[in-house]
Amino acid sequence: MSYSATDGPAPYSTADPTSFGYSTARTRWPIIVTGVVDDLSRAVFQHGPAKSKVEEGCAIIETLQNLKTEILAVTQLCRLADDGSAEITSYNEELVALGQPTWHDSPWLFCECYLFKRISTCFSLSEHWKDYDGFMNQKMSTFKSSQPAVAELAARYKALVSSLEKDDAAVVQAGEEIIFKEIFEICLWGNATDLSLLTNLTYEDIQKLQGSEARKAAETNILVNDLPQVYEKLKRAQGAGTSSRVDIVLDNSGFELYVDLLLAGYLLSSGLAREVVFHPKNIPWFVSDVTPVDFEAIMGVLAHPAIFFGSSRDDSLSEDLSFLSTQMESFRQEGRLSLRTSSFWTLPCGFAALPRADPELFSELRTSQLVIFKGDLNYRKLTGDRAWDPVTPFVQAITARAPSGKVGPQQQQQGEGKAEKVQASSVADLNVLALRTCKADVVVGLLSGRDEELRAATDPQYAALPTGTGGPRKWAWSGKWAVIQFSQAR
Ligand code: F6P
Ligand code: MG
Question: What is the pLDDT of residues 253-276, one digit of tens each?
Answer without folding.
Answer: 999 999 999 999 999 999 999 999
